[in-house]
User: What shape does this take?
Amino acid sequence: MRLMLLAPASLVICLAVPASAQEWIEYGNREEGFTVNLPGQPQVREITWPSEYGMVFPGRVYSAPRGRERYSVTVIDYRDAEKQYAALNHPPSFRQAVYWQIDIMASIQYAATKLFRQKPGAKVTYDAWHYIDLVEGHQLHLTNADGTITHAGIYLHENRLYILDGTVPADAPEPGLFIQSLGFLDAQGEHVRYREIYSNRLPPVTIGGRGGRGRGGAQAPAQDQPQR
Assistant: This one.
């Protein structure tokens, strides 16, 4: 039996599961475009996310603890990257569209390093390209300084960054199924299905004079390519 409850911007799907795990639900958020299994209704916290190229994007953290286990989904909205970048004061050689585009394209690896690879005292035991529902991303496993285990998944879909973090005690089942439960929703709240690997589609260039080649070009001249 499946019960679906629709709210204005989100949906919650409660699945029939064994009695020992009935607190788990399939939580979906139509506004944010995702669905994931969580141990109960999440708490929601507004955040800001400083990006690699100096912009600050809005985000929300959806967190649901279960005893000593911690599960969260962080959603960062990169969709207005062009507008934000254009509003900043840049030297002429750094005004091309390529820079705000790189900020989006590199967001998975930036988050992986910022949140997990450089986590104090943690040992990264797995660090590789990954995909969920054919949406490409990255997955990391960590043994933390306190002995807990973290599985993290980071995915970029429709210029939103999804960061999943499942952290459990060493004697608990690893949180891999939590990461694997992520799905993506369209504007109508329907699950998105792809037939081939999906790579994020950048927003169109709309602000004239910011491109590298031609009107709003996405590539900067060779002498203006960013140094990474």
